[in-house]
Design a protein that fits this description.
three-stranded antiparallel beta sheet; 136 residues; 2 domains; 3 strands; mainly alpha
Length: 136
């Protein structure tokens, strides 16, 4: 659990209540939690969460380390209505080896934790979870 607040007294009170109920450790300054890197800007009083290492692991896991990065992850060249047509047997066989659901789940985790900007893209690719195509 990570407790963050501008009110130090409130943090101390909460820690006291929690420690009376459960066994806990106080790490004071935390740099990572749940695989997310934490950066603190004391001047602006802000915390920033990063998942750089997780994203690298996901890219490695799905053999996409050499994928090109782009500013807008969602391509506009795919027309959803065209992708609802019946797949050929070769495409079905190819897609049976693609871990589409795992990729989408990894994107969802990234979106929920640190990359809210991926919400539209994740929503679109999630629509095709039951019948993904090569284009997806």
């Amino acid at each position: 659990m990570l407790i963050a607040s501008q009110n130090l007294l409130a943090i101390k009170k909460l820690k006291s209540i929690l420690s009376s109920e459960i066994e806990m450790k106080d790490k004071r300054v935390v740099e990572k939690i749940l695989g997310m890197e934490i950066k603190r800007d004391r001047v602006q009083k802000k915390l920033f969460l990063f998942q750089k290492e997780y994203i690298k692991k996901v890219l490695n896991c799905f053999e996409m380390e050499s994928a090109k990065s782009i500013y807008t992850p969602l391509t506009t060249s795919i027309c959803p209505s065209e992708l609802n047509t019946t797949q050929s047997e070769s495409e079905k066989e190819y897609m049976s080896r693609v871990p589409y659901a795992s990729v989408v789940e990894s994107l969802m985790y990234t979106m929920v934790c640190t990359r809210l900007d991926l919400a539209q893209e994740v929503s679109v690719v999630n629509r095709y979870m039951s019948n993904p195509r090569k284009e997806h």
